[in-house]
Write a structure and sequence with these properties.
The chain contains 7 helices and 10 strands. It is α+β, with helices and mostly antiparallel strands and 277 residues long.
């Protein structure tokens, strides 16, 4: 699944490619991906200019004057741009947005898990509140005190709690393993057992790991590519994810992998020890 660095990289690429273009027509080959009213979706978009493409967590926001098209890539979603007169045929292309510059923005999704919906701008805050999204992973938004307060009152294990997106947005399986390793916290540690220093270090680790992911264009694990069809290279800088049996970069102990809340989880048994309770 694309995580925040991948989605942010896609957002930047799409802004360079389609911002300022007018949507001339819309075609859907898989209507079930539309989560809002289908008739409105098809009738509203033609004639609207793509003013900007923003992001909230892992959601892409196509800003269209009084409404916003919200797109979630889920597991395998991706966007391509082709000349309208030379569209390739692909059974996994599900949405086509013909643009005023003679090109077509195409949404591809092999697994058909991605979603799109139109939301009135006045209802955006309500929409995202309903998703219970936490703050963005930047120092000005992701504040230490509320983060620490939520952790100290929780019986949840830290990794699955971070994946819920309610503490902070953007972490998926790759970057949560990386952040916990950097903070020297065991993925199965109970949130309430973390010391104030643990929480402070974890917050900084999350911010730094996700920022590094954005800087390096995301991680190419499986099929991710950015809006230009270019693979990111963050995978070349991962320390534990996908490194089972390889030496920990810090202590040399073999990285281990286990299942936690249904997710393959990587950690160093020497650097990331469970606290004794």
């Amino acid at each position: 699944m694309p995580e925040l660095p991948e989605v942010e990289t896609v957002r930047r690429g799409l802004n360079n490619l389609v911002r300022g273009q007018k949507i001339m027509s819309v075609k859907l080959n898989y209507q079930r991906m539309i989560q809002s009213d289908l008739a409105e979706f098809l009738s509203y978009l033609p004639g609207k200019e793509i003013i900007n493409i923003g992001r909230r967590g892992k959601y892409l926001l196509f800003e269209l004057s009084e409404k916003t098209l919200i797109s979630h890539l889920r597991m395998e979603g991706k966007y391509h741009l082709f000349p309208t007169q030379a569209l390739p045929i692909n059974k996994h292309f599900h949405a086509f947005f013909d643009l005023s510059n003679g090109q077509t923005l195409v949404y591809q999704d092999v697994r058909k898990f991605g979603t799109m919906e139109l939301v009135d701008n006045l209802n955006l805050e309500t929409f995202f509140n309903s998703k219970k999204l936490g703050p963005e992973p930047v120092a000005s938004d992701f504040l230490l005190a509320p983060f620490q307060d939520k952790l100290m009152h929780s019986q949840k294990k830290i990794k699955p709690f971070l994946l819920e997106q309610s503490l902070v947005v953007g972490l998926g399986n790759i970057y949560v393993d990386e952040a916990l390793w950097l903070a020297k916290i065991h993925p199965s540690e109970l949130a309430k057992n973390l010391s104030p220093n643990d929480v402070s270090v974890l917050r900084k680790s999350i911010i730094n790991v996700l920022a590094a992911g954005v800087e390096r264009g995301g991680s190419t694990i499986r099929s991710y590519k950015n809006a230009f069809g270019v693979a990111g290279n963050m995978q070349d800088y991962l320390n534990v994810y996908g490194k089972k049996s390889q030496p920990c970069p810090v202590c040399g102990t073999a990285i281990e992998k286990y299942k936690l809340a249904g997710r393959g989880t990587h950690f160093c048994p020497t650097c990331q020890k469970l606290k004794k309770t």
